[in-house]
Amino acid sequence: MTDTPETAATADIASLSFEAAMGELETIVRRLESGDVSLEESVALYERGHALRGHCEARLAAAQARIEQVSLGADGRPTGTTPFGES
Questions:
Q1: 10, 47 in Cβ contact below 8 A?
Q2: For 44, 52, 78, 87, which has the most beta carbons within 10 A of its beta carbon?
Q3: CA-CA distance, 22 to 17, in Å (whole number)?
């Protein structure tokens, strides 16, 4: 089974950190807004941008799921944690 350009691009995006994906997405938006790219390139950039946006959303959701709220005791020391969003 050989990689198609789409699966290679998806694997490439999956390996990006949130910051790297967001930086690339910002670059794509600037290029599209400039109007200096061909229609074919615009479509390819839009598709990559869409995949990058999805990757960033997934990374943010994963980070939010890991955020924990520290519970403090009367002495000010941490006594435990609760998942994000629970009180």
A1: no
A2: 52
A3: 8
Contact 79, 73 (CB under 8 A): yes
Q: Enumerate the β-bridge partners of residue 71.
A: 80
Contacts of 18 (CB under 8 A, 6+ apart): 56, 59, 60, 63
Q: Whats the size of the chain, residue-wise?
A: 87
Place of tokens 């074919």: 40
Report pTM. Answer: 0.69
CB atoms within 10 A of CB 11: 10
User: 63: number of CA atoms within 13 Å, CB side?
Assistant: 9
pLDDT at 20: 96
Tell which residue, 52, 44, 59, has the closest CA to residue 24: 52
Q: What is the DSSP string of 49-87?
A: HHHHHHHHHHHHHHHHHH-EEEEE-TTSSEEEEEETT--
